[in-house]
Amino acid sequence: MLEATTAEKDVKRKGLHYLNIREQLTGYLFILPAFLIIFIFGLFPIAYSIYMSLFDWGIVKGKFVADKNYIMIFGSWKNLLIILVGVGLLIAAEWVWKKAFRSNKNGEMIAKLLGAVVLLAGGGLFVTGWMQMAESGNAQFLNSLIVTLYYALGTVPAEIILGMVLAYILYQEIVGKEIFRMLYFLPYVTPSVTTAVVFQIIFSSRDTSLANRLIGWFGADPLKWRFEPKPFLNLLGINLKGFLAGPSLALISIMLYGIWSFVGYNTVIFLAGLGNIPKETYEAAEIDGASKWDMFKNITMPLLSPVTFYLTLIAFIGTFKAFNHIYVMRTPSAGVSVVTASLMIFDRFYKANQYGVATAQAIVLFLIILGLTFAQNKLMSDKVFYG
Amino acid sequence: MKKFVPIFAIILIAAMVLGACATPAPAPTEAPTEAPAPTEAPAEEPKPTEAPAEEPASVWADVTPAKNIVFWHQHTKAREEALKAIVDEFNATNEWGITVEPVLAGSYSEIFNKVNAMLNTPEMPDVFVGYQNQVATYQLADAVFDMNTVIDDPQYGLSADDQADFIPAFFKQDVFPLYDNQRLALAPNRSMEVMYYNMDWLKELGYDAPPATPEEFREMACKAAETPFSGKKGDAKSVGYELSIDTSRLASWTFAFGGDIYDSATNQYTLNSPAAVEAMTFIQGLFKDGCASLVTEAYGDQTDFGNGSLLFAVGSSSGLTFYESVVKEGAGFEWSVAPLPHTGEPAQNIYGASVSIAKTTPERELAAWLFIKYYTSPDVQAKWAEASQYFPVRTSVAEKMAGFFDAHPSYKTAWELLKYGKFEPGVPGYDFVRGNGVDGVNEIMAKIVDDPTVDVKAELDGLNERANQILADQLATIKK
Questions:
Q1: How far is it, in rounded angstroms, from Cα B434 to Cα B131?
Q2: Is B388 exposed, middle or buried (0-12, 13-18, 19+ CB in 10 A)?
Q3: Which of A21, B279, B336, B471 is the most buried (most CB within 10 A)?
């Protein structure tokens, strides 16, 4: 009897096992087309880029050079290691600041003190590694990363804030809001190459350009806009140097285009997010005597945080990959002050035909984007309120 | 019924096997398409017995030109239409039944990028336009057909008279010493950097001729910046000269100052030659004194010239038509072209893309060559030059264009300057040296004119070093 039961169980188990395999196979079969497409057009090019980056690859494939193209960027692996240790310490500082020694009586104060020390050490190491890298590595590529960072920091917050504000306004009962929604969205759907040409003319260095006429109404002298390689702060008389000097006026002109182009998209996404906030929440707050600002600060912003998180993430990735409008709007006069990492890689690839070097730079950019996305996810995800 | 199935299967398999065995069968059906060969062959047969020592047999005699080839070009609007007409005529009249498909593949740089990405692949266009430096870059991958193998061919090549008819400098320009004197292209047209000037304005300023020397140029340009043209239209500021940041401008001014930017004897850039330093110092001085400014928008100098707010512009002679129309639509004054102001003999920067053939199969290469031969033949050249306002590349064509010269005196003036022609380097990597974001020539030019305190010599020294490094990197990959 017992034997029979065991045999039955065996048959059942085998049957389940078979069923399981069949289900698994069917599942794999369903995802196969998508996998093939992603593999051929996504994973394979990345893998092939990594392969190319290990060769002295010009117009023709040259000899295997192992990590030489990467060393050209970093100067040495030691420099990269110093930077990575610096980044590690910065992450550790955040953890120490927020979570360490919480069981002790004066734990918070100790944690903050220690966190500050670790933060300083991390920052110091990062800067040291970066400076060594700039000295012995590819200074042009590293500069392009700084330009990219300026571009990201100068556009993403503005796009998010303006998008949210515009969405909030358009969400109110105002006449013709549908037309405004469409108008704000238009820059996003218009081909960037075309609109960038219009911005080229607006930000021309002619005395009679639209931008110069506009600032002329406020009594300001004409500026060179897209042709100005000097940092904007220096033009204002604030003579900072290096990274602190900030972006050039030429890059700011390009940033204005970026903001103009993406605000409409953010507005539409925020509007969708606003539509998901229950009206009762606002009504309850109103009954409790909350002002418009209170409601915006305590209801709208927290409940929009998933949308804000999504848009920030996408926008940061987008700015690191931005290309078309920067390519169209750049001028030789602006020099390297507007050359972002993606443009630098393009020039290396298509003008210098240094495919090995260009792919190594592209892989580094890819890893930076991946790292930043991960960091952003870690830093912001616990601030996102899903209701 | 069932028993017929195996029989049917056997018959089917047998038919397939027989079909496979019969693969030679298409030969007779293909033969007619190759018909010209047998008919031509007997005619050529006596040749070896007649004069074996005098005229070697064609090495292409056994090759049948391909029927369909693709031609990538960058011409738009009226030029594209003219080119299409030429191609259509070739397609309709050529005796080999070749059909050329002209494809507008983008600008020069777009074509360069695209071709680079498909070198030595079957996707390569059979014929494509390219500057000498671009073709030299393609040849790093040994991807371009050497026309030396066909140009002297008794059956398909160019006769000695035909070859002599080409303007020697143009004809030689596509022979690459870097690649053992391979001919990697043939020029169908050329243009030249000239100085456009507003004659009416010059007269108002008290001059009766354009400037011949840099000093005269400076004097006139500075005077123009202070004394606007009476017929000026619009509110743009008057200026003597507008510089478009472009390596060809640096080359043109260096040539005018009696120097060069490349030494072909040593295969080294000379971007810091005394003439280059002198030329850029001269330009920097013009900016410093407020006599010159930068071109701020695409073709902005043409617009300003047409509106009478710009006295001198330097640009390609292929823009003659455009200058003609902007002046007509703008301030409507008397204008013409002249050589760039020079220190010794005039020296004019001549450039233009040639047409190359991709290394593919002998059939496709031969078909491509036959089209290029037609494209550069005198009658076609005359049509092409008149429609495009490029210069023709053959001397005999000028005679056919007497009427056109009379109708377009500026074109004639420019044509007469061809004898002073000089060329920019046709070496791989020149596109990168020219710059845009990588401290190339363009960036350095912008830096020099932007800041009058910049040390021209030091900047050009640095630039030259970088340029030679890029060149060395590129040349290192040439297959030995």
A1: 13
A2: buried
A3: B279
The 3-state DSSP class for residue B350 equals strand
Strands B175-176 and B182-183: antiparallel
Contacts of B478 in chain A (CB under 8 A): none
Q: Write phi, then psi, for B239 (nearest 5 degrees).
A: -150, 155
* Cα torsion B63, B69, B71, B76: sign: positive
Check residue B261 and report its DSSP letter.
Answer: S
- The residues pairing with B354 across neighbouring beta strands, listed in sequence order, are B130
Q: Which residues contact B11 (CB under 8 A, 6 or more apart)?
A: none
Those residues whose C-beta lies under 8 Å from the C-beta of residue B408, and which sit 6 or more positions away, are: B320, B389
Residues of chain A with pLDDT under 50: none
Of B336, B334, B355, whose CA–CA distance to B415 is shortest? B336
User: Strand order of the sheet with strand B99-104?
Assistant: B99-104, B68-73, B127-130, B354-357
What is the maximal distance between C-alpha atoms in chain A?
102
Among A251, A273, A320, A316, which residue's Cα sits nearest to residue A166?
Answer: A273
Q: What is the DSSP letter of B34?
A: G
Secondary structure letter of residue A348 according to DSSP: I
Mapping DSSP to helix (H, G, I), strand (E, B) and coil, where does residue B435 land?
Answer: coil
Out of B298, B437, B445, the one facing A330 most closely (by C-beta) is B437
Closest residue in A to B435 (Cα–Cα): A332
Residue B102 three-state SS: strand
Structural tokens at position A100: 């360490």
B132 and A CB contact within 8 Å = no
pLDDT digit string, tens, across residues B121-146: 999 999 999 999 999 999 999 999 99
Alpha helix locations (H) across A106-248?
107-136, 139-171, 177-189, 192-202, 210-216, 232-235
Rounded to whole angstroms, the Cα distance separating B16 from B18 reads: 5
- Determine the pLDDT at residue A305: 92
> Scanning every residue of chain A, which has its alpha carbon at the shortest distance from the alpha carbon of B471?
A352
Give yes or no for B445 touching A (CB within 8 A): yes
Cα–Cα dist B269/B294, whole Å = 26
pLDDT for B397-439, tens place per residue? 988 899 999 999 999 999 999 989 999 999 998 988 987 556 7
pTM of the prediction? 0.82
Find out whether A143 and A131 touch, Cβ atoms under 8 Å. Answer: no
A53 part of contact set with chain B, CB < 8 Å: no
Q: Decide if A181 touches B, using CB distance below 8 A.
A: no
Phi, psi of B139 (to 5 degrees): -75, -10
Q: What is the C-alpha separation between B174 and B139, in angstroms, rounded?
A: 12
Inter-chain CB proximity B446 and A331 less than 8 Å: yes
Amino acid residing at A310: Y
Catalogue all structural domains in chain B, each as residue range(s) with its CATH number: 68-185+353-419 (3.40.190.10), 192-350+427-475 (3.40.190.10)
CB B309 within 8 A of CB B237: yes
Distance CA B282, CA B273 (A): 14
How many angstroms separate the CA atoms of B455 and B272, rounded? 12
Q: B141 and A60: CB-CB below 8 Å?
A: yes
In this structure, the number of other CB atoms found within 10 A of the CB of residue A178 comes to: 9
Packed helices B300-307 and B320-329: angle between N→C axes, nearest 10 degrees: 40
